[in-house]
TrEMBL record, chains A, B:
Name of this protein: Helix-turn-helix domain-containing protein
UniProt keyword annotation of Repeat present: no
Organism: Pseudonocardia spirodelae
InterPro entries recorded: HTH_HxlR, WH-like_DNA-bd_sf, WH_DNA-bd_sf
Organism placement in taxonomy: Bacteria, Bacillati, Actinomycetota, Actinomycetes, Pseudonocardiales
Pfam families: HxlR
PANTHER family: HTH-TYPE TRANSCRIPTIONAL REGULATOR YODB (PTHR33204:SF37), TRANSCRIPTIONAL REGULATOR, MARR FAMILY (PTHR33204)
Coiled coil: none
Keyword set, alphabetical order: DNA-binding, Transcription, Transcription regulation
Amino acid sequence: MSTQVGLSGSAGPGDAFDSDCPSRAVLDHVTSKWAVLVLVALSRGDHRFSALRRAVGGVSEKMLAQTLRTLECDGFVHREVAPTTPPQVSYGLTALGHGVTGHLTGLIRWIEEQLPEVSAARSRG
Amino acid sequence: MSTQVGLSGSAGPGDAFDSDCPSRAVLDHVTSKWAVLVLVALSRGDHRFSALRRAVGGVSEKMLAQTLRTLECDGFVHREVAPTTPPQVSYGLTALGHGVTGHLTGLIRWIEEQLPEVSAARSRG
DNA sequence: GTAAGTACGTACCTCGAAGTAAGTAGGGGA
DNA sequence: TCCCCTACTTACTTCGAGGTACGTACTTAC
């Protein structure tokens, strides 16, 4: 008997430890190389495409567009187009987006603060 | 004049938005596909190699060993070998490991709970 | 006239992340 | 006797994430 009741399907919360659970895909999207930084950047306020690209150091236009599309599809980011010439597109977080990003900002801040400890551990190990 | 003072080098906390900052590497390690699940699994207590492999659904032996080595190198995981035959190796979190994992468990729990919302958004988008 | 910016889409290519499979060395069970 | 279990390592292979580069349609600036 397992101590865990595995309800597969749409009922109940997901189980990220189950390789078939759709939460795995969401986890992969959210923790992907650029998504973390994009989400945290957007938590500081709405950004235009180019502003976002400047904020997230090292991201290519292709990957930024791709990351934004994925996050928009998952409902974390909303896209707003102003009908000017040229069209000005601005990105921001949805309510769902603010939810995940809360955890991510905490994570990033922790890493930035504990970086000396990690570097020390790495040079030891 | 930029509004941001960029102190590169070892002084002060890192800046994950700078592509040259070493915190990027740590972020990539911690948010990698398997590291998230391994860390959260270990937060529930020490695990042997095979137990860990069973806990984290879908991970191969190679990737588990590789992930554990990276996390051990960064000082998040400690490895303990019991001098029995065959040697029993057990893995657990260090103090540093408990620090990051706090944020990760929050993230995973949030995703598992909000999965219906995300799925709904995805089918809409 | 030319260059640069805005907001992407698309094509091409590379390199490494990750999967598969097998080897290792000792011990215990069928 | 032979296979399985533990805890990995190594070799081979694949596939896709991600980089580079260019196109687009329009505007502003020099």
